[in-house]
Amino acid sequence: MKSFWPSQKLTLALLGSLVLASLGAAGPRKYKIRDEREAEEFMKELDVRYSHECNLETLARWDYMVDVADDDKEAAANKAAVRYLDFQGEAAVNASKFDYSGFESVDLYRRFRFLSKKGPGALSVEDLTKYKNHQSKMENIYSTATICDYHDPTKCGLALEPDIELIMASSEDWEELRYVWDQWREVSGKLMREDFIQFVELSNKAAALDGFHDTSDYWLNSYTVDEREAAAFQIANPLTQDQFQAMADQVWQKVSTELYKKLHSWVRWKMADVYPEHIDLTGPLPANILGNMWGQDWVNIAHRVMPFPEFPTYDVSESMVENGWDIQQIFESAEDFFESIGLFPMTQTFWDKSVVNQTEWGRVMMCHASAEDFCLGPEGDDYRIKMCTEVNMEDLVTVHHEMGHIEYFMAYKNLPHVFRDSANPGIHEAIGDLIALSVSTPSHLENVLHLMPGEGVRSGTSPASEYSDDEKRDLNFLMRMALEKIAFLPFGYLIDKFRWGVFEGSVPTDQMNAAWWQLREELQGVTPPGGSRGEEFFDAGAKFHVPANVPYIRYFVSFITQFQFHAHLCQVAGHQGPLHTCDIYNNRDAGSVLRNALERGFSEPWPVVLKDLGGSPDMDPQAIISYFDPLIQFLDNELAKAGQCIGWGEECVKSSVAASGSAGVLALEETDSSLTSEQSTSVTSTSEQSTSASATSEQSTSEQSTFESTTVQSTSEHSTSEQSTSASATSEQSTSEQSTSASTPSMQSTTVTAPPSSPVTELTTEPVTDNPASEDDAKKRLEEMDNAMTIHVQDSALADWNYETSMTEESKNASIEAWTDVKNNFHDFHEKTIDYFTYEGFSEGVKRQFELQRILEWPPSQGRPSKCEYYCGSAQFLVPLTDIVSHMVSTLGKKVCPVSNSECDAEKEGMGIYELEAKMTNVTESYDNLKYYWLEWRKVSKELLQDYKEYVELENKAAKLNGFNDTGRLWIDPYTDAEYTGDDFLSEVAALWNQTKPFYVNLRAYVFHKLKEKYGDDITTDDLIPAHILGDMYGENWESLYDLVAPHNDTHLPDISDVLDEKLGTVTDMTKQVEEFFNTMNLCITKADFLKFPSTLPRIKMCAAKTQDDFITLHHEMAHIEYMMAYSSNGKEVMPIVFRDGANPAFHEAVGSAIGLSARNPAYLQEVEDKLKQEKEFTIRSDALDEKLILNHLMKVALAKIPVLPYAYILDSWRWETFSDDTMTEYNKRWWELRIAEEGIAPPTKRFPKSEFDAGSKFDVAVSIPYIWRFVAQVLQFQIHHKLGEKCSCPDDINCRIWECPDAGSNLTTLMSRGRSVRWQTALNDFLGSEIGLNSEALENFFKPLDDFLTKYITDHEIDVTWDPDQINKYMDKEREEISATVPIVVGVVLACMVVVVIIAYFVGQKKQKKKLKAMESQVESGGHTNMEMQQSKKEESSDSEEEKEKETVDERF
To answer: Does pTM top 0.85 for this prediction?
Structure first.
């Protein structure tokens, strides 16, 4: 039997593994303890140890917190913390040895579920020590930070509490407030930035070791409810971390809309009287004027914003002092309240050991108030508060809050240690504040505490006397409560929203401060007082909870749930009247409900406790809204009467125009940096509808290290995807991470409002009785349609913007709903207007309005991303198409590992597309590294393939509903009319490419020659350029290669970046400098005819630095502004919305690029440099540019503009084929077939024809952005530039200065002012003064000196410019054959059967062997005994040896 057992184990193991493999099973599960009794004993022992270890850690931490200057106590606290965390890790490891999933006791199940999480204790001892050291260092920086006095710089040592906070609360000196605000961030957050980054890394490492994705996932675990708990406690559904975050976001959005934004607008309006030079009535609030270091609590400015300043403010601070209150009395009043409702008195230990008076204590302590439980459980009485208490109302409320924690500690002390906590972390915070809601009522202050509110400030201005005295007092009270409670909510939400982003990696550590201020502006409407803040700062760290590593979402949860609790307890108490007047003091019924909830601690999932204590298992904002309902009604009424807008930025402009129709003022402002450096630069018009959504500008060629976001009308929108997913069509691709785009008047990123002279006409359901042939009747209907659709498109544009900058299910659904509304309204108008009238005989202008709207979509597509599917035809396409596009976009948001760590965790350590593009533009990268990045990004784009196929099908269905054969024909429709068909356009584009191709061929040959010199033998192709070495991820922009291919390396193009940075104070100053360019052409940003129409509020959004690249880009963007203003009124009257756009989809970009050609002219840049250095007006240089300089300049321009011609042409030619040929399967082969034939560019390695999707690597494919307009714009810009030069009598297109040339400005204005009101061919020919139409002659003439140089160089070096266009098969790999899913199962079963046969054979053999042995034994008995024993002994030795070998084999197998 010895020899049989190992071989049997091996055989059965093989059999088991084969069968399991055939069924797709994993390996054997590690053994865990399932004995529930053993688990209970383990928990009993662990509970005792937990209490002991927790007590030791809390004692050491307390000693340090109340004496932070003692280094020994700091070291002891750190040591105790490490010990405790190490214990927690050990406990979690031991708890994880139990398989608790099947325990009958839900109580025991929950204890194991949460105790098996190690937290930081999961780290190694070394990492844990580092973790605590970083945290301790950050806390010490915060706690010991001091600043010097603003008025007396020699007076230093001002601490946050009470010195700095007192200044922030009482001063109204703007400069002092700004100084103190800045200095606190200098000495706190800035100094801990690097520690925080290291801390995040270690914290995430601990979370990962604990089975969480990152720290945010770990933090939110306490808010989750798993399936077992949901079933046991009869909760409708489990709750995940993501679902909780979604719940919090929904709550915030409702409160923000219903109340916060109105409060913000009221405060902004009132504070503008105090700081008139510093507050924009349509913008965010400066962060330094809100009476609080963090802008989280606005109570200290209550006297400035009270609705009725002549009435009491309900701040009883003065009354407390006058009545002789001291710190002891504050604490006793809090204890009295809790005892009055049947809760617990404080213990003697509490009174003996709490530290609540820093002056008496006499040591440096952490002043941030906190309550501590010393973990002694059922027999314990050690609970304490530390607080630098002052005698004022704020601290009166805070003491009630902290004592609420103590009440909670005492209520649940009899529970096991793991359950000695609140139902969720936010509920702990809510309990004290719940009591404060009663304490703060006027009746409690006056009747219980005998404190009288302060006198009113009669110098203020209050609303008309339509309110009674009681109403005025109530409104003042509610305003004060809102300044505390509502003002806090966005701050309470955004601190953790920011940290979640840092932990999960969506906020890069080199952009933390930009992300912080992005959130503060978006959610809170607050900006830094001195403009944008750089990345050397870490302003989030200026708040205690960040260095202390305390999750903050608990406070947001608290501020919502406390009102739920208050409403429910008031109902239990039998309160009658408005919720804000309820005081539960002395009501034992309410206290009983509260105590019952507190005693349950964490022993039940929080939705259960929330339902019992708050009436609903979900966070519900209705209670807080109901509480403040009188104030909401007051704000609605008074803000409307005063014409004040709601919100800030884009939203505020919209509401102010809709409410008052007052003209806006065009202004550029600097705001904080955007979330990522890849933000788009855009020009947006809030009136003009356009399908161009985003025509992009010329791009920066270098990374930016410093950003200032420059906006018009205080906008700060940003794009979070590669480009704005509104139809943001990228222009000349940048070699920097920043993507610049110009959002021409867009239905997607634009606010469109009706002109004030034209009241909005709502859709009527009355039957149309007009004369179908009457032009007058048609005009009336068109005007009605125009006004109504303007408003509907405005709303949908805002919804789109919200979705495209924050891709959530909620925002997606809002966008769908808004466009459905547009669809429905346009359908009705189309039927009653466009289809109703026989317009063929109408005048040209009226007729054109009908023709442009004949397609059943809104707005007319203009050839950019067709929104048709969103609002025309059947709604069945809407959701799936939106989902497909969203999924493709999110796929391109994936990251890839760097070449130095190719096996990394891509989501945490990988690079997104902007980092990859930066790598591709770096010509110092090796050939193989560039190849690696190129291929890795195509692995990502490969994932789009199936989505794209479904997208094509749905797009085509929508196109057919509009009367087109396919989507390609729909895309080119904006270029066509009755006289010019789609085939005409395609023929013209093909002809243009053939005209420009010879120059491209020469440029390509020259560049390829230089690349061969650089890469040598790495390049193995003779005639095709490997696609990955062209300085661009897509090979459409070669500008990064300039230093490599410049004709004359001894001649340098001007770079005025240093002069701009030195001579111009801000980006706004640079913008004003750019404006001078247009002023010299008699084009003015603030011209009066534009300002007459408040619906026309263009703005620029740009993350700009004072560099030459951004200086040039601003010219491009401002040209879009000029275009928008020109066609907004046509110099006479408001243009119909359908005319407010470029003549065709390429015109907007062509105008911007034509101006850009002049802005990058070396002569202009040199003149700007002279002006700034000498601080005088422009000096026009009369000398011609140096020939070498000209060639270098032309080379740089050509590298940026010429390669995009074939790329844009190929990209859309390929997509037209995918739309028209539903039999096409080899997408990738056709893509490379076109690129090889037209561009002479090949992939760096073989590609699969069907299963790879390299065209999808371009973002425009995923977001459905047509690209042919880029081709047209590249040609058209040179025609426009040449004509402007003619008007200025330029000798040639290079030595041409259109600045200082009013004739050029006048000619350009004529073109732009026509918008889309005439055929684009007519507009172009009238501008050119000939019937030439689209033509490449101007482009060829512009580059002629360079082409001559290239021709000579090619001849001199005997370079072959040709390539074989028909070698696609050489670059295609054979597709891998897919194996049927059933094959592994069949193989597994066959192998299993074979093993069974082997086993059977084995047993048969054993039986025969036994018979043989028996026969041999008979022989022994008959005389062969000695020989047989020897033979048997040898056999046993051999058997033992075989057994050992087999045992080794078994051990290796297992």
So the answer is: no
